[in-house]
Amino acid sequence: MRIGLMTSGGDCPGLNAVIRGAVLHGIKSFGHDFVGFRDGWRGVVEGDIMELPRQSVRGLARQGGTILGTSRTNPFDGPQGGPENIAKVLEANGIDAVVAIGGEGTLAGAKRLADAGLPVVGVPKTIDNDLQATDYTFGFDTAVSIATDAMDRIRTTGESHHRCMVAEVMGRHVGWIALHSGMAAGAHAILIPEFRESMEQVSEWVREVHDRGRSPLVVVAEGFIPDNREEAIAGKGVEASGRPRLGGIGEYVTHEIEDITGIETRNTILGHIQRGGAPTGFDRVLATRLGIAAVTMASEQQWGKMCALRGTDVVRVDFAEALDGLKAVPRDRYDEAKELFGR
Ligand code: F6P
């Protein structure tokens, strides 16, 4: 079999480990050969491919980013998009299967192509950990560990200056990164897209901590909506896909806290640092296992499915199951974290 791998959407530590796991397993166990599509669906639609021999994946498990490049191209857009054109590209290049490694948007495209009869399997990826049908996605653990380390540092400078410190982390629709990194760093308030809070309440938590002589740390996910606003702050134009580029909530929260409490407050936006650099050991293992599983699935022609983590097992699920809404932080997990706000 000749298998085409592609990585699409926002990049994520662990993508290269998937590619390595897939190529090594495919060559050794099945005698497959591999190509990579450059820059996500763009490479699939345009037939922009590169050969992936065994030596091309040497040392890749520890390397951040994706050697294939990525984009947010929609495989159905433009005159070249759509299943008929993609089928022709696969045939012209002798490609028997596509492994689509991506998040919700990528897998939605993969599902539509598989429904149209194309040989596509999926591997879930997102630092946001917001995909259904998988307990964890690789990249999340790395993002949490980078954010936690940053907050530990933010706290020491905050303590020196007796300031309140705000850290804005990624999380467009869900607050998993904020929840986990905030808990790990001992944040005094964690604000996430799933649940509204008033700035008066946040300021109250800040004041409690400041009154005890500590430096308050507030973690806010980029998609958090304060209870006096209609929608998330998106003052940074639009992405290629047309959706608004979020950002600015950290600044907003910082000003509100300073106005309400009079406590000097500073904002730090962690941004793309959370997605950069080497994956953690956990993410390397998960990504490698998923790469192996995806090739086994393709070998068995299990089109329209993706591999997923359930507990400690790698399982197969239909795309439809993975795309059944986003995996939001449930109320009880937020309330559990809230027990320590202001403490
Ligand atoms: O990968 C998902 C994500 O991390 C979101 O949380 C965030 O909104 C988005 O990526 C930003 O990515 P980019 O700036 O690369 O479009």
Automatic annotation (TrEMBL):
<feature type="site" description="Important for substrate specificity; cannot use PPi as phosphoryl donor">
    <location>
        <position position="105"/>
    </location>
</feature>
<dbReference type="GO" id="GO:0070095">
    <property type="term" value="F:fructose-6-phosphate binding"/>
</dbReference>
<feature type="binding site">
    <location>
        <position position="10"/>
    </location>
    <ligand>
        <name>ATP</name>
    </ligand>
</feature>
<dbReference type="InterPro" id="IPR015912">
    <property type="entry name" value="Phosphofructokinase_CS"/>
</dbReference>
<dbReference type="GO" id="GO:0016208">
    <property type="term" value="F:AMP binding"/>
</dbReference>
<keyword id="KW-0460">Magnesium</keyword>
<comment type="similarity">
    <text>Belongs to the phosphofructokinase type A (PFKA) family. Mixed-substrate PFK group III subfamily.</text>
</comment>
<keyword id="KW-0418">Kinase</keyword>
<feature type="domain" description="Phosphofructokinase">
    <location>
        <begin position="2"/>
        <end position="297"/>
    </location>
</feature>
<dbReference type="InterPro" id="IPR012829">
    <property type="entry name" value="Phosphofructokinase_III"/>
</dbReference>
<feature type="active site" description="Proton acceptor">
    <location>
        <position position="128"/>
    </location>
</feature>
<feature type="binding site" description="in other chain">
    <location>
        <begin position="170"/>
        <end position="172"/>
    </location>
    <ligand>
        <name>substrate</name>
    </ligand>
</feature>
<dbReference type="GO" id="GO:0042802">
    <property type="term" value="F:identical protein binding"/>
</dbReference>
<dbReference type="GO" id="GO:0005945">
    <property type="term" value="C:6-phosphofructokinase complex"/>
</dbReference>
<keyword id="KW-0808">Transferase</keyword>
<dbReference type="GO" id="GO:0030388">
    <property type="term" value="P:fructose 1,6-bisphosphate metabolic process"/>
</dbReference>
<dbReference type="GO" id="GO:0047334">
    <property type="term" value="F:diphosphate-fructose-6-phosphate 1-phosphotransferase activity"/>
</dbReference>
<dbReference type="InterPro" id="IPR035966">
    <property type="entry name" value="PKF_sf"/>
</dbReference>
<dbReference type="Pfam" id="PF00365">
    <property type="entry name" value="PFK"/>
</dbReference>
<feature type="binding site">
    <location>
        <begin position="72"/>
        <end position="73"/>
    </location>
    <ligand>
        <name>ATP</name>
    </ligand>
</feature>
<keyword id="KW-0547">Nucleotide-binding</keyword>
<dbReference type="InterPro" id="IPR000023">
    <property type="entry name" value="Phosphofructokinase_dom"/>
</dbReference>
<dbReference type="GO" id="GO:0003872">
    <property type="term" value="F:6-phosphofructokinase activity"/>
</dbReference>
<keyword id="KW-0067">ATP-binding</keyword>
<feature type="binding site">
    <location>
        <position position="266"/>
    </location>
    <ligand>
        <name>substrate</name>
    </ligand>
</feature>
<comment type="function">
    <text>Catalyzes the phosphorylation of D-fructose 6-phosphate to fructose 1,6-bisphosphate by ATP, the first committing step of glycolysis.</text>
</comment>
<comment type="subunit">
    <text>Homodimer or homotetramer.</text>
</comment>
<feature type="binding site">
    <location>
        <begin position="103"/>
        <end position="106"/>
    </location>
    <ligand>
        <name>ATP</name>
    </ligand>
</feature>
<keyword id="KW-0963">Cytoplasm</keyword>
<protein>
    <recommendedName>
        <fullName>ATP-dependent 6-phosphofructokinase</fullName>
        <ecNumber>2.7.1.11</ecNumber>
    </recommendedName>
</protein>
<feature type="binding site" description="in other chain">
    <location>
        <position position="222"/>
    </location>
    <ligand>
        <name>substrate</name>
    </ligand>
</feature>
<feature type="binding site" description="in other chain">
    <location>
        <begin position="126"/>
        <end position="128"/>
    </location>
    <ligand>
        <name>substrate</name>
    </ligand>
</feature>
<dbReference type="GO" id="GO:0048029">
    <property type="term" value="F:monosaccharide binding"/>
</dbReference>
<comment type="pathway">
    <text>Carbohydrate degradation; glycolysis; D-glyceraldehyde 3-phosphate and glycerone phosphate from D-glucose: step 3/4.</text>
</comment>
<keyword id="KW-0479">Metal-binding</keyword>
<dbReference type="InterPro" id="IPR022953">
    <property type="entry name" value="ATP_PFK"/>
</dbReference>
<feature type="binding site" description="in other chain">
    <location>
        <begin position="272"/>
        <end position="275"/>
    </location>
    <ligand>
        <name>substrate</name>
    </ligand>
</feature>
<keyword id="KW-0324">Glycolysis</keyword>
<dbReference type="InterPro" id="IPR012003">
    <property type="entry name" value="ATP_PFK_prok-type"/>
</dbReference>
<dbReference type="GO" id="GO:0046872">
    <property type="term" value="F:metal ion binding"/>
</dbReference>
<dbReference type="GO" id="GO:0061621">
    <property type="term" value="P:canonical glycolysis"/>
</dbReference>
<feature type="binding site">
    <location>
        <position position="163"/>
    </location>
    <ligand>
        <name>substrate</name>
    </ligand>
</feature>
